[in-house]
Here is the input.
Amino acid sequence: MLVTIFGTGYVGLVQAAALADVGSDVVCVDVDAAKVERLRRGEVSIYEPGLEKLVRENSAAGRLRFTTDAAEGVQHGGLQFIAVGTPPDEDGSANLKYVLAVADAIAAHMEEHKTVVVKSTVPVGTGDKVRATIARRLRERGREDLTFDVASNPEFLKEGSAVADCRRPDRIIIGTDSAAAEEALRELYAPFNRNHEKIIVMGVRSAELTKYAANAMLAAKISFMNEMANLADRLGADIEHVRHGIGADPRIGYHFI
Ligand SMILES: NC(=O)c1ccc[n+]([C@@H]2O[C@H](COP(=O)([O-])OP(=O)(O)OC[C@H]3O[C@@H](n4cnc5c(N)ncnc54)[C@H](O)[C@@H]3O)[C@@H](O)[C@H]2O)c1
Here is the structure.
């Protein structure tokens, strides 16, 4: 499938390489010209086991390309992924200016139907903002005739095992109310969905909340265990024994405690 990914950070680059490796034709767009230049030479500046090899092999095979030219990226993919950063603002809220800048660039250059897929971690309601941004720009261009879908497809990879997580995901969340977008994303992810059904389809807002809920639950588990470790120290208990004792309960489990 023809795919464009905006943002070649952890999420965008790993996703791009994993998709190219199963046969998609992927163009990556980034505003960082130096990074794009390095990626064109096959140099990956983050260390993730297996990533540089995947980038080099798939670039050599012609299935993975890098550009700073948004117009070229928009023209390429029927699926347009937004995987740019969402850094916290001073009040802790996610800064959406990069996400919405990409939405605007897609609308500025599109000449046919596009499915815009938000992979960045974003607060609930961002899908609506992306939709409004695209609609506004199309109106300004006098191109209300152009159609588009917006979907949410949050990422759950962990730094350090990003390639493995991306190639063997626990679940693939597709948030959309468009049957066509669902079908396109099901086709894209079919190679990662072979052994058992991992795709879970829901509305855009539910998908956005799923990512925040997962992050909050994992943070709560870690914080809880840190508190327990402090308590164990004060009480003369061994936190490792406590961890074993509570993790044996399948309702609790050993992960992240
Ligand atoms: N890193 C993780 O472990 C992880 C895991 C899950 C989800 N996420 C989420 O995924 C999103 C991306 O995270 P990341 O770690 O890959 O970010 P990152 O900061 O590593 O990379 C973001 C990239 O986007 C580029 N960019 C910014 N504006 C652009 C534009 N207008 N057009 C094209 N490229 C642009 C930047 O130059 C940069 O290369 C964030 O919302 C993050 O919260 C991250």
